[in-house]
TrEMBL record:
Signal peptide: none
Any GO BP: mitochondrial electron transport, NADH to ubiquinone
Protein name: NADH-ubiquinone oxidoreductase subunit B14.7
Membrane-related topology note: Multi-pass membrane protein
Subcellular location: Mitochondrion inner membrane
Keyword Metal-binding annotated: no
Membrane-spanning intervals of the chain: none
Keywords: Membrane, Mitochondrion, Mitochondrion inner membrane, Transmembrane, Transmembrane helix
Superkingdom of the source species: Eukaryota
Matches recorded under InterPro entries: NDUFA11 (IPR039205)
Gene Ontology cellular component list: mitochondrial inner membrane; respiratory chain complex I
C-alpha cells in the first residue's frame, strides 16, 4: 500500500479521535494528526531527528492550513444553526 494512502488514513483517524476525545473541532486536532503522520513518515528513514523534523513540519503545516483555512472557507462566519438551515433548504425536495 502506498505511503501516502497510509499516512492519509492515519491523519484522518488521529484527527477524528482527537476531535472526539477533546469534543472540539479546531486546528489543534489537525496539528496533532499532522505530528503523528509526520513522525510515521519520518520513521521510514529510521532516524529520530528526521522523525521529529517531519512531525514538526507536518504539525505546523496542517495546523496552519486548518487555522487559516477559515479565511477562504465560503461558510466562514456562519453559525451551526445557519449552516443547518441552509442545508435543509438546499436539500428540500419539492
Amino acid at each position: 500500500m502506498p505511503l501516502f494512502a497510509v499516512l492519509g488514513g492515519i491523519f484522518t483517524a488521529t484527527e477524528g479521535l482527537a476531535a472526539n476525545f477533546r469534543q472540539e473541532d479546531d486546528y489543534l486536532n489537525s496539528m496533532l494528526a499532522g505530528g503523528v503522520a509526520g513522525f510515521l513518515a519520518g520513521a521510514r528513514r529510521r532516524s529520530l531527528p528526521v522523525m521529529i523534523g517531519c512531525a514538526f513540519t507536518m504539525s505546523m503545516a496542517m495546523g496552519a492550513y486548518k487555522y487559516f483555512g477559515s479565511l477562504t472557507d465560503p461558510f466562514a462566519g456562519r453559525t451551526k444553526e445557519e449552516l443547518l438551515k441552509e442545508r435543509r433548504e438546499y436539500l428540500r425536495l419539492e
